[in-house]
């Protein structure tokens, strides 16, 4: 699988969350052949203090993971994803991401699954296989050691079970909120990623879309919450 490349939309950077402009988000997905709609914010729930920043995996379902793994914000890859978004896909990058997540009132998270251990996270598997090299640089992360870094700083790891069943992506920009997974959608809380210094909107969009396209090509349906 070839590496994706970093790009901007129409040659311009995206600053949608910082100036209230979201049309470029919609256009980004439309230009990639996605179906786009805007969601009802009534589905949003408030995040909980000291809950876990998780991956956007669709398998974080009720009754299958601890509650603190459901009521935190979600970004593909969790803490490793934040490091990648900052172009720091290294153990030191994971450590810095973990500390910055903690400073914002949450705990850093990672996941695997019962069949593949740490490589059960599809984002992290794509990252280590070089799929994102053109966007984030070459990764230098041992996931077992990254998991230890999280443990040392109050983070949390969980193994998921089952296969991906998502038919779409929930992409949320309402601060302090998330969407509880029911297995039908991947979920990314873009508002949280953009609180982290060094995370660029273009890169967030590219990694979010590319992850879904690689893991579940038939799930190119995004619902945007603003």
Automatic annotation (TrEMBL):
Pfam short name (any one): CDCA
InterPro entries: CDCA
The protein's name: Uncharacterized protein
The organism of origin for this protein: Candidatus Roizmanbacteria bacterium RIFCSPLOWO2_01_FULL_38_12
């Amino acid at each position: 699988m070839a590496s994706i490349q970093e790009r901007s939309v129409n040659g311009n950077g995206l600053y949608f969350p910082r100036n209230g402009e979201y049309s470029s988000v919609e256009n980004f997905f439309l230009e990639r052949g996605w179906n786009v709609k805007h969601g009802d914010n009534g589905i949003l729930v408030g995040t909980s203090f000291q809950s876990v920043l998780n991956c956007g995996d669709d398998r974080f379902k009720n009754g299958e993971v601890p509650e603190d793994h459901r009521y935190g914000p979600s970004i593909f890859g969790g803490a490793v994803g934040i490091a990648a978004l900052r172009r720091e896909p290294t153990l030191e990058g994971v450590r810095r991401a973990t500390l910055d997540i903690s400073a914002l009132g949450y705990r850093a998270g990672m996941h695997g699954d019962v069949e593949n251990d740490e490589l059960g996270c599809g984002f992290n598997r794509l990252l280590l296989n070089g799929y994102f090299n053109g966007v984030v640089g070459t990764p230098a992360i041992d996931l077992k050691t990254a998991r230890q870094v999280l443990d040392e700083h109050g983070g949390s790891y969980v193994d998921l079970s089952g296969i991906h069943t998502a038919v779409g992506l929930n992409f949320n920009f309402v601060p302090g909120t998330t969407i509880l997974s029911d297995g039908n959608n991947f979920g990314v809380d873009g508002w949280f990623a953009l609180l982290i210094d060094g995370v660029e909107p273009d890169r967030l969009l590219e990694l979010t879309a590319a992850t879904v396209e690689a893991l579940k090509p038939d799930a190119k349906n995004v619902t945007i919450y603003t």
